[in-house]
Design a protein that fits this description.
Elements: H1 2-22, E1 35-36, E2 53-55, E3 91-97, E4 106-108, E5 114-118, E6 123-128, E7 138-143, E8 151-155, E9 163-167, E10 171-176, E11 189-193, E12 210-212, E13 219-223, E14 243-247, E15 253-259, E16 264-269, E17 276-280, E18 292-298, E19 309-310, E20 314-315, E21 335-339, E22 343-348, E23 362-366, E24 379-383, E25 385-386, E26 389-390, E27 393-398, E28 412-417, E29 423-427, E30 432-438
Parallel strand pairs: 1-2
Antiparallel strand pairs: 2-27, 3-30, 4-5, 5-6, 6-7, 8-9, 9-10, 10-11, 12-13, 13-14, 14-15, 16-17, 17-18, 18-21, 19-20, 22-23, 23-24, 24-27, 25-26, 28-29, 29-30
Length: 441
Amino acid sequence: MRRQSLNVAVAMATFAAVALLASPLLPEGPTSGPVITGKAAFTDYTQEKPGIRRKITLADLPQPYATKGVDNGAQMIKRPDGAWPQAPAGFKVTLYEGGLVQPRLIRTAPNGDLFVAMSSSNEIMVFRGVGADGKPKQVEKFADGLSQPFGIAFYPSGQNPQWVYVGNTDSVVRFPYKNGDMKARGPAQKLADLPGGGRLRGGGHWTRDIVFSQDGTKMFVSVGSHSNVDDPDTHPAEFHRADVLEFTPEGKFIKVYAYGIRNCVGEAVNPTTGQLWCSTNERDMLGDDLVPDYITHIEEGGFYGWPWWYMGGHQDPRLEGKHPELKDKVITPDVLLQPHFASLEMNFYEGSQFPADYKGDAFAAEHGSWNKSNRVGYEVIRVPMQDGKATGEYDDFLTGFTTADGHVWGRPVGVAVGNDGSLFVTDDGSGSIWHVTYTGK
């Protein structure tokens, strides 16, 4: 009996040792706790905290009008004394630049310069380096005289791009560029007209993002809808909107690459799979917990539901009976976010400064709700990936932009990874750029 027990103990110890040797080493750094699922996964600003992980599924969605749609937009306040963005343990947040007027999308040039769209003043600004005081070493105006610029892209990819592309609200333009330029070396060249034209030119979603396919042959331009849920069959203003449009790099329109995407504000190409991804604003006024915003890969020719359907085969009751033939074509997004999050720019993390388990994950800025009884958003989230595919979960990563009583002082818009692997976040609420580094302390 003793010998049998001894043999069992030896076998168990041997199995444990083999399992330990066979398993990968755990990455250093912060890890998330248990995943919050089911109805509890729906949240508001009071429950947002760095490191909390949630997963929303189709089974969790309520019926339309389970609660009443509301107009609960935030009135911005000045950042209170002591208020500061909060990140997970081991991360440090500093103020890189303040006093800006509504900094929006941010992209990193090959040499590490940060290009920022100042949409309200129709400019592109460039911020270079980090000084001993944590501030940029140099700031310049790259270009002005634009038209609500948002998307920024460098072409071709690599260390020596020749052009900086800009997505105006009504057009795609490009500037001649050499690596390290902080001022445009020539005037804008108009390549293509875009539908809509923004707040001053017909209304609707005005942001236009631009990314290129990995092989550089396709230019993807996202164009949001004109409305919340107008039927394109009867509203000509929705023509070629709520779409991702494909152009050549020279600006020749090829086709609607994907459709039914109400407002793909932020585009990114997944470095692992080469797929286009979108960070998307869904529709409003169906209740507090409908319809989830989302982050998803984009399939060529794919239909994502707007305006007739949402989240797979759920029909919008405001368009009941319309286009039943499309029900089975609706692609369910990879990651369902909080409804009314206002998910804006996204980026994939390929740096080496953050813990190893961040590699390949996505970050996205959640600008914050207006159509929910209790505010939600006003944060940056992390979207875990495995071999380039989303797990369906997301983490609160950078929070603290609201006060305990529900006032809002900051609204994240853009996320960019610096060449050193740190993260930069634009905040058009406080007019700031925040810098997130990992110290491990």
